[in-house]
Amino acid sequence: MRSRLTDLGSAVRDALEPGLRLHLTTSGRAATREVLRQSQGAHGSGLGLTLIMCRVGGGHAADLVASGSVAAVIAGSYGAVSSDYVGPLPQLQSIFGRGDVTFQHWSFLSLTQRLRAAAQGLPFAQTHSLVGSSMAAANAADFMVIADPFGQPGPAAIMSPLAPDVSIVHALAADEDGNTLVIPPQEDGVWGALASRRGAIVTAEHIVSRDVIRRNSHLVRLPGRYVRAVCHVPFGAHPGRFGSRVLPDLRSYQADSDFDRQYLTAARGPEQLPAWLRRWVFDLADHDAYLAQLGEARLARLQRRRPAVQRRRSAEDGSPPSANETLMTLAMREVIRLIRADGHDVLLVGAGLSEAPAMAARQVLRQDGIDVSLAMGHGFFGFEPAPGQSEPDGDSALMSADATEIYGVVLGGTRQHGLAILGAAQVDRCGNTNSTVVNGNLITGSGGSNDAASVCDTIVVTRMSKRKLVARVEFVTCPGTRLRAVVTDKGVFRKTRGDVPLQLCAYLADDATSADDAIAEIRSSCGWDLEIGADLERVPAANGPELSLIRWLMPDRYRR
Q1: How confident is the model at residue 308 (pLDDT cuts 50, 70, 90)?
Q2: Does domain 323-558 correspond to CATH entry 3.40.1080.10?
Q3: Interacting residues of 91 by C-beta distance below 8 A, sequence separation 6+
Q4: What angle, rounded to 10 degrees, do the helices at 287-294 and 29-39 form?
Q5: 103: number of Cβ within 10 Å
Q6: For residue 321, is the peptide bond before it cis, meaning its omega torsion is within 30 degrees of 0?
Q7: How is the chain split into domains, by residue range?
Q8: At CA 47, angle to CA 45 and CA 48, rounded to 5?
Q9: Fewest C-beta in 10 Å: which of 174, 195, 323, 341?
Q10: DSSP states of 71-95 as a string?
Q11: Backbone angles phi, psi at 164, to 5 degrees
Q12: How many beta carbons lie within 10 A of that of residue 283, not counting itself?
């Protein structure tokens, strides 16, 4: 057996060179910090890296982009997700606004499909995604729509393969030869590692014997022949969560929400971020020093499992529903209405304001004997709600997969009958949504929203304002072809399939407000000429049971 075992610093140092096309997985946060640390060393700002990632968000990937060492970014999302915040990071917005770095916007699935095509040696990848979006036009050199060569109706979208030079993957365990146990969900899986021209660097929570690998060969997704270096990196995904119940003897740990909160506070205050980076990246020699600074007590606490269910917060405390709670209640009702009417059996849960209403609707439908499976695009399927948490209860999932299986098969495959509930920065009168660029500012990107909106019915959840509901979106992240409803905190807009405009079909008003006044308020907050549906209805505010359910499930970041 050939040993590829080395330390993380040496592995990164050996790989980094000017012009490198570097693929990073979201969970490889220790590796991202090491790349950032070394990119500011001998190489300086002359590296000119092309960074390929599904999600450029937390874990200092955004700081790497802003460091001056990156010339181009190929990514599906730029958003940070924590217990306190879902949204863009200022350092990414600043570098985007200056134009110092080239950004190629893709979706989770389309990016993964390009990596997979390269790994399989195919001349192109096929996708359901991006058709009709601004991403398709912007990426015309790598994306095109052709007539289906086998005569099937509708267009066929194809993309060029995407092969990194080097990929860095974080995994649960590997042997010294690089045979790697990969536990999903993994967003883009190991396709970047399998596609990399010079091989992958594996950072592993555990270095195990070949006998352990053989006993768990069904979990090996990255054979050693594709690996250039293996590094023992415990807690390598920190501050993210990592691990699995599948191999209970190996390390699992929860997300460090306090650390995330402190980082995001620093990231949103330009004067605080340099000090944070010095403390947690540049002034530390390596990952061992990082763990020592975290401390054994903190790491031990993260390895304890969180309670599965929180105590339900009651609606009986006398406080009226907030705007967010009202929005979530109306969204929950709309999900229930559509599933009862159309029989969707999978509900894709987007990040942000859509989380709680999706899970609440599922709870209500289950009580009525209607079984709907919850899915998240990064890989969880059939999971149970995790009340008040910023991420799902992954241990309850019936299947853990990656983006190709969730978006490509569960939602987009032969048995597609899903409904997606999504957020958006903007939506226009035809139902096109934008979560990528608003007024020249980078937002969060598509993530998986375009992948979902390309293959299944969708509901968009957003607060009511002219800033959100616009006559025409600046950037089409998701065409409105499959949009069924837009739910706001003031009312519900619906449309039939196609390019027909949205119509106001339900409005919220208390007993003291007339219909005319309620509709006038909605009209004044809408960025297009309001069209009224033929069956316009007045809907009541959240009742006690609805409000209790929403408050029980709602992440803490929305309790303001």
Answers
A1: very low
A2: yes
A3: 62, 63, 65, 66, 267, 273
A4: 120
A5: 20
A6: no
A7: 8-108+163-300, 123-159, 323-558
A8: 100
A9: 341
A10: EEEEEEE-EEE-SS-EEE-HHHHHH
A11: -70, 165
A12: 11
CB 54, CB 185: distance < 8 Å: no
Secondary structure of 256-311 in the HEC alphabet? Answer: CHHHHHHHHHHHCCCCCHHHHHHHHHHCCCCHHHHHHHHCHHHHHHHCCCCCCCCC
Average pLDDT value for residue range 31-49? 84
- The span from the CA of 238 to the CA of 259, in Å, is 9
- At 331-389, the pLDDT tens digits run 999 999 999 999 999 999 988 889 899 999 999 999 999 999 999 988 899 998 877 66
| CATH class in words for 8-108+163-300 | alpha beta
Tokens 């975290």, residue located:
294
Ramachandran quadrant class, 356 (left: phi over 0; alpha: psi -120 to 50; beta: rest): alpha
Residues in Cβ contact with 393 at an 8 Å cutoff, skipping those fewer than 6 apart: 308, 383, 384, 385, 386
Beta-strand pair 418-423/70-77: unpaired
Share of residues in the chain with pLDDT > 70 (%): 94
How far apart are the C-alpha atoms of 412 and 317, rounded to whole Å? 43
Residue pair 492/484 in contact (Cβ under 8 Å)? The answer is no
Residue 413 region, left (φ>0) first, then alpha (ψ -120 to 50), else beta?
Answer: beta
Do residues 410 and 382 lie in contact, with contact meaning Cβ atoms separated by under 8 Å? no
Percent composition of the chain: helix, strand, coil (DSSP 3-state, to 5): 30, 25, 45
Token pair listed for 203: 């950072």
Whole-number average pLDDT of the chain:
91
**Closest to 354 (Cα-Cα) out of 379, 376, 384, 372:** 376
Of all residues in the chain, the percent with pLDDT exceeding 90 is: 75
Distance CA 247, CA 6 (A): 24
Range 203-209 average pLDDT = 97
Cβ–Cβ < 8 Å for 110, 130: yes
Q: Which of 486, 472, 474 is nearest to 522 (CA)?
A: 486
**Identical fold at 8-108+163-300 and 323-558?**
yes
Given a contact cutoff of 8 angstroms between Cβ atoms, the answer to whether 556 and 499 are in contact is: no
Q: Is the dihedral of CA 209, 214, 218, 223 positive or negative?
A: positive
Q: How far apart are CA 253 and CA 365, in angstroms?
A: 32
C-alpha–C-alpha distance, residues 181 and 173, integer Å: 5
Return d(Cα 330, Cα 221) in angstroms, integer.
43
Q: ∠381-382-386 over CA atoms, to 5°?
A: 100
Residue 496 neighbours by CB under 8 Å, 6+ apart: none
How many CA atoms within 13 Å lie on the side-chain side of 378? 18
The pairing of beta strand 418-423 with beta strand 346-349: parallel
Assigned token pair, 56: 């450029």
Residues in the chain, how many?
560
